[in-house]
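assembly run, all chains below
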Amino acid sequence: MISERFEVPSRLKSTAIGLLLIGIIALIGGFIALKGGNEHEQARFWIVLLQNSVFFLFISAASIFIQAATSLAQASWIVAYRRVPESIGANVWVFGLIALVVLFCIVFGLGEHNPIYHWVHPHGDEILEGKSAFLNKGMFAGFSIVTVALWSFFGIKFRQMSIAQESAPKNSTKLHWKIVAMGGAFLFVYALSMMSTTPWYWIMSIDAHWYSTLFSWYVFASSFVSGMALILLFTVYLKNQNKLELVTKEHMHDLGKFMFAFSIFWTYLWFAQFMLIWYANMPEETTYFKIRMQGPYSFFFWANLILNFAIPILILMSRPSKRNYFTIVFMAMAIIFGHWLDFYLMTMPGPLQENWHLSWYELGIPCGFIGIMILVVTRTLSKANLIPQNHPYLKETLIHVS
Amino acid sequence: MAIKKFAVACYDDEAVLFPAVDKVRNSGYKLHDVYTPFPVHGLDVALGQKETDLHIAGFCFGITGTATALGFMSWIFTKDWPINYGGKPFFNLPSFIPITFELTVMFAAVGMVLTYCYLNQIMPGVKKHIFHPRQTDDLFVIAMEITEGTSEVELIDFMKSTGAIETNVQIAEEGWWYGRWDKEEAYQKQLA
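ok done. output:
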């Protein structure tokens, strides 16, 4: 029997609480300084909360997706550290709840002239009235609640079933097949939420006049690659604590491959969206890129491409760099930051136009979310055996060579 | 063309092959190669082969493709034959990207296939000695080189002790050659 428990080190806990405090102070400061201010300050207050709550919800939901996909594919490489995505996935409800509160405050609490979602009250705007069958408060609320509820349910369920497998009779595969079936069901849910409606409602509708059909795919690629980076960071942290000794470079190499491949996939979708708009040159579509590429955001626009495409493709291409703990941890951090910046670029220019900010409030709020992430995930990790010892693929994963 | 003398040992089980490979490597006899009907996991490690450099070749081919596509298109659309497409600039980078991507992939793929063929000495129309006809079917074959000063009888006995079900001595061309099989048959007759 291989058994391994993780206890949250007090240093990590105090760091996380410190980050959370920074976030809370930023939130209180924002509430005092921005909430009651003019339209721009109000928009700034809400858009930053929206960007971060949605970003952290999406990257934690990617963990449920990878569990579902690997269970369905009967993959053994992830089994050695399956507890990490499980623990992240089981806490999707925390971020889901935060995101729901923020979204509902924005949609229902901001009155006639909504600074974020202009579609809430079209005010005779023909384009927005034409979209009102899809873009209205009821549909938005319904889709958001269903999405968050289903993600949370599957995240918790996967974790529960995996832990139940521990006490199941030896060599019993009944639960394993149940997880496989649940994986199929989740992919269906995920395809209809993350890969279509959810990003349209939560992010794309900020620029309500503009639309792009593959936007959700692009957001999915962004969240998936940073979700893999998040799993990698937690796994390497556990290894640094002398846990998960059975996880080797071979397993980390696979996560590195995912980070590399999906960085390119993200670029592919980003470029597919960009090139069609650039080529067709239709004013209602180019406004989206006009402000980002040639306007006040052009620095972030190019930084986004360099961080999320040029650096990953150049650094992660070679095999030794994917097997080196320093480079993959560095790249994971760069990728998470890069895609956070990508979400910043998706959300900030819409409501704030040229009045962008990237200061105490914009950087303080994500600190709070990182704090929450560390606190809840490590708490869940410490509650169960770190190695799924009764998993049918345990032996296969231990001898895995990538 | 290097004609050499080989001792050939055949095994019918992977579980026997691996210990045999270990023994051969420890014995000091000169191992030529191991032939298996399917890719055997871990055999490259057991043989002590170093990591292939094929991917470096792939990178070089890919970069060549990128440079070719970008260079050629830039030259055509700015110098050789500039055409105004819908008011877009002549140096039209975003619209070059898909073709650049395709050429990168094509150069890398074709180049790597050819490099792979070269490294493994296989190519249409090119021949290489086959030590045992069943090496592509159900037998694992270890070919050992009989160098000067190696006792043929001792080597065969050694191979038998590692569990070989069939052993023999062959004189054959080591590398690949272009031509027909009867060229090899001619040697065999000449040497026999």
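The longest strand of chain B covers residues 3-11.

The interface with chain A takes residues 41-42, 51, 55, 59, 86-88, 94-95, 97-98 of chain B (CB under 8 Å).

not gonna interpret more than that til we talk
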